[in-house]
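Exercise 3.2. Students should predict the tertiary structure of the chain below and write it as structure tokens, then compare their answer with the key that follows.

Predict this chain's 3D structure.
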Amino acid sequence: MAQYLASKGRRLTSANTGSMGGLVALSREECHLAGSHLLDPESGEYNIRYIQDILPEIRVKLIVLVERQQGLIVAKGNPKSIGSLNDLIRNDITYINRQSGAGTRVLLDFHLKQLKISTDAIKGYQNEEYTHLAVAAAVASGRADCGLGIAAAAQALILDFVPLYQERYDLVIPQGYYESELLIPLLDLLLDREFRDTVAQMPGYNVDQMGKVIL
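Answer key:
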């Protein structure tokens, strides 16, 4: 996205804060938009409840960026035959987690609760990284046997990927910025065929809903 926007005279600067951190940054007026994939365990909807809780005084637009697969990043060849979250409680498995507030962490905790798996039973649950690529690096180095993340991170480090869930990743944009000239190139980009085709070629990504306005 940054590369495409640069060709339109816009420089995209981003920080890896996790989805919750992005919404908090919006509440502090520290950014123009945030990416978010926070699952509401009660409704099964993404992001809306968290926006209502964290940004109650700010009118925002919620726009779909992509739908993507989340799954377990494992060593090449999956030598320990890891196939589901149920394997995380095995004595021979060490997990690497995302930080509290990350959408991936929320997704994991939701499904662990559904499966009635205690986090205390997972070796490495307390070990955290701040990006999908850092999780993949922990697996590649042998520091962990697996971690929940996206397929692109696994592919980048020549690891294997066990797909588990499909999630929606949205852009949260305050109304004032949404209507400003500043973000016109970004919003146009979501409808750009070349950009959509490029994203669709990334492993685990689906762009059918890209640009759809949820709120």
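Discussion points: The radius of gyration is 18 Å. The chain has two domains: 2-66+168-206, 69-165.
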